[in-house]
Amino acid sequence: MIWLNWRQFRLQALAGAAGLVLIAGYLLYLGMDIRDAHGAYRSRCADAAACAQAEIQFQSTYRNTLLFLAAGLGLIPVVIGAFWGAPLIARELELGTHRLVWNQSVTRRRWLIGRMAFTGLAAMIMAGAAGLLLTWAAAPYDQVAADRFGTVEFGARNIAPIGYAFLAVALGTTVGLFVRRTLPAMAITGAVFLVVQFTVPNLVRPHLMPPEKTSLPMTAQAINRARSLGSITGAPVVGGLQVPGAPDAWISETSPLRTRDGRTLSERAFAQCLDAPPKTGAGGTFGDAAVCLAALDLHVDIEYQPGGRYWSFQLAETGLYLLTGAFLTVIALRRIRRA
Questions:
Q1: Of 262 and 11, which is predicted with more confidence?
Q2: b/e per residue, 16-43, with b = 16+ CB within 10 A?
Q3: Among 176, 61, 165, CA closest to 122
């Protein structure tokens, strides 16, 4: 049984191993380069101003590269589900070769478990190794940027890719059992898994644990530390804030700018400070606009997850993927009796 599984899967396994070698080579090179740049940045931190400038330069150098890598490696489970999971049984059913196997002494369920276990283990090893290599390469950057909860970054780091890979194989196999045709099963699996990758970070992850709540005074200094101010609709919002004393916290929800009595700042007052603030010659990211808004005694209410919960979220989300994959496996085992 193991030998048969290997013969049927060897081309996919060899292609995956070759891809992993290429990924490992690049990430090892990138990781060493990031560590050299991090050491150079830290060497300039004797002076506060020089250190701040070096930090900005360090982050800007690697931000987009690591973001694209996380997004790219996040597609590995999609490829696994579509090209490894979906054809696993669908091709057998489409070509009729399943009849030969089912006429042997091996039961249908045992045959399915063997095939899924072999493919699933290979998928988890590949995705897990790629995720751990990216985690190692990006470690100095993550320490400085304090953005491990990022929507794209979180799912491509540490153990989450292992759960993704198992779910991808289980999803692809189950879809293939129901559709019974290879190409449609591959397309459906890829589309569904992309939906999962969008839904979980945005709609599920924020509710895995009850958030902490607090209010942040919007001083000029706090506003200048934000990443964005305003929106295309003109709403009085601020984005990219940090929790004082906890820069690695994940802010899952931020209210609009609010006045002392808790009312949302009017768009008119916000636009006036944004477009035509009194000239004070203030510096910072938003300059005079930040000073104008700070004079209105504003605050925002936020919900956040402390950085210390990072591994709890990794375990919870990975467990969710594994449980969902196990549920789909049970469905597949029931379905194969009527295939």
A1: 262
A2: beeebeebeeebeebbeebeebbeebee
A3: 165
